Amino acid sequence: MIGGRRITSVDLVPVVVEPPAVLTGINKAIVEAIPYWPRQISIPELSARVHVEPKSLVRRLPACQAVALICQDGGDLCKLREDLSNV
User: What is the 3-state secondary structure (H, E, C) of the chain?
Assistant: First the structure.
């Protein structure tokens, strides 16, 4: 011990811990409007439901997928439950 701190020869490896993603505003509305599988919703129908242009909706999907398990089959979207009980 040197100066009250233990010194070891172990190399410390820094670990990056990212805070959990939190959805707000339109992204939260998008995730809530996407139905659970096997039901699906088309991108144009979802964009009309949340009042967002389809291109803007497509750009927002990666942020939504960071929180929810969103699957895209062609132009249709659906969500999976976190425990995958609806698969």
Answer: CECCECCCCCCCCCCCCCCCCCCCHHHHHHHHHCCECCCCEEHHHHHHHHCCCHHHHHHHHHHHHCCCEEEEECCEEEEECCCCCCC
Question: Which neighbouring-strand residues pair with 5?
Answer: 2
Q: What mean pLDDT is predicted for residues 4-12?
A: 65
Higher local confidence (pLDDT), 55 or 87: 55
Confidence of residue 5 (pLDDT cuts 50, 70, 90): low
Q: Is residue 33 part of a domain?
A: yes
Q: pTM (2 decimals)?
A: 0.70
Report the domain count for the chain.
Answer: 1
Domain that holds residue 56: 25-80
* CATH code, 32: 1.10.10.10
Averaged over 59-79, what is the pLDDT? Answer: 88
